[in-house]
Write a sequence for this structure.
């Protein structure tokens, strides 16, 4: 039995108030999912001591970052699974399921026993929950971005989808603010004992509110059109990845856009935080404040570069952000080391002869003897305004590469396989290439003793993206996605 075609409405006829309601419904849930995903990373220094053996802080932190990465590593699989659902059943249904899975996983982390009480069950259970969270996030972002993009005018897609782009940074920002508020009102002992659980448990309230909002949402008009007219793909995975023209486009989008975008995002926000706290020994709370303020100042620029991409194109802005990062990361991180006032110059790795565990200790110049190196203590008087400025510059690069990326990916792929095709390069670029930045960065610093060696990896990937993107990435700003399904575009 054939379906009766629905009346598709050109995006130019959708009112601004309707667009705002779509963005609000999509972005609130997406922000909560990012918060749920990133609160895990924001508490890395604290929770690494809760879920792994004590006595070896370096091992515990690297092991925790590896657990953190597991959530990133499975995101491409979530993209395939939920992308297929999104192309077969609908955008709305897919990201209702992802919100539920993510919220449940976050609540469970708040209930988890620690290594002290449960032994190795604690990290194993934590890894299992991170797998579920990674799968959920793999399906969430693509659904929300596509849902917004399939409601808005073709000539303002970069601007409107940039509000979804803000949610990732805003989710990270909210995770940092939540930790800061709790640390301000709780004693260090109480926060270490049970306070760290509160951000995980409290998010369940927000998840329920967002789920209520999403259940009231209607399906994307473009998806309704392709479904009712028989244009939908019966085998989205096969159509997306076994046909060379589309597979080629997926690979170009990955290596020429999202890989570089991913490492710039995680360097400018996450690695900057790890660098301040773990390498330069800036006070934990001060480090959170520096990064949170820089992100708050930088967030409006997502819409600035999203709107600019509607005028000059997506490709130029994304690749310019990658190139600026490659050219300036070294001087920026040198300046951060100077502004921290700790003059950390190298690391010393020492092995416990009994446990065989390695400990990484930042070393600084002895004030009494410039030729002698001593373990770095907490930075006594960091230049906070300068550090905020230096992190803000990195966040500005984030807004350049990330602001236009959703619009590009939506325009790059046809509607019938858009969810599947969109999600895979995005989540490999961000989940694999980007997610490895903190783990690889800290590991390379530990292996070399060079406090700047952690930048080699993101700089290399961003360089690759700039080269591949410059040669093969096509500009998509003039693509009319409504015309594809039979609507008259402006």
């Amino acid at each position: 039995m054939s379906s009766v075609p629905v009346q598709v409405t050109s995006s130019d006829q959708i009112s601004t108030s309707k667009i705002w309601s779509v963005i609000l419904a999509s972005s609130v849930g997406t922000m909560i999912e990012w918060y749920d995903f990133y609160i895990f990373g924001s508490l890395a220094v604290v929770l690494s001591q809760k879920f792994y053996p004590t006595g070896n802080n370096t091992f515990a932190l690297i092991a925790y970052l590896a657990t953190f990465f597991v959530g990133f590593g499975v995101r491409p699989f979530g993209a395939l699974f939920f992308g297929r659902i999104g192309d077969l059943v609908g955008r709305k249904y897919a990201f209702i399921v992802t919100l539920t899975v993510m919220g449940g996983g976050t609540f469970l982390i708040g209930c988890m026993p620690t290594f002290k009480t449960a032994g190795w069950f604690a990290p194993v259970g934590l890894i299992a929950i991170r797998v579920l969270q990674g799968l959920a996030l793999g399906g969430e972002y693509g659904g929300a971005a596509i849902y917004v993009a399939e409601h808005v005018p073709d000539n303002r897609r970069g601007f409107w989808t940039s509000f979804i782009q803000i949610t990732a940074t805003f989710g990270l920002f909210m995770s940092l603010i939540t930790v800061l508020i709790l640390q301000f009102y709780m004693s260090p002992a109480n926060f270490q004992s049970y306070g760290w659980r509160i951000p995980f448990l409290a998010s369940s309230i927000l998840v329920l509110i967002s789920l209520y909002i999403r259940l009231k949402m209607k399906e994307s008009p473009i998806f309704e059109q392709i479904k009712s007219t028989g244009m939908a793909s019966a085998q989205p995975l096969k159509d997306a990845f076994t046909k060379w023209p589309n597979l080629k486009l997926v690979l170009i989008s990955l290596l020429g856009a999202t890989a570089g975008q991913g490492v710039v995002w995680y360097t400018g926000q996450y690695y900057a935080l790890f660098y301040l706290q773990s390498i330069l020994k800036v006070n934990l709370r001060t480090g959170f404040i520096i990064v949170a303020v820089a992100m708050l100042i930088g967030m409006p620029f997502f819409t600035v570069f999203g709107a600019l991409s509607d005028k000059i194109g997506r490709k130029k802005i994304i690749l310019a952000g990658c190139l600026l990062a490659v050219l300036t990361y070294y001087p920026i991180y040198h300046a951060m080391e100077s502004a921290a006032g700790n003059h950390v110059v190298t690391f010393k790795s020492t092995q416990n002869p009994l446990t065989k565990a390695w400990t990484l200790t930042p070393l600084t110049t002895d004030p009494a003897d410039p030729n002698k190196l001593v373990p770095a203590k907490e930075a006594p008087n960091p230049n906070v305004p300068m550090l905020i400025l230096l992190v803000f510059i990195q966040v500005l690069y984030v807004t350049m590469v990330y602001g236009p990326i959703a619009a590009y990916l939506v325009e790059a792929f046809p509607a019938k396989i858009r969810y599947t095709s969109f999600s895979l390069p995005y989540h490999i670029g961000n989940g694999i290439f980007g997610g490895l930045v903190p783990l690889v960065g800290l590991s390379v610093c530990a292996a070399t003793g060079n406090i700047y060696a952690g930048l080699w990896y993101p700089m290399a990937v961003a360089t690759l993206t700039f080269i591949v993107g410059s040669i093969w990435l096509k500009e998509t700003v003039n693509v009319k996605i409504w015309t594809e399904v039979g609507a008259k575009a402006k």
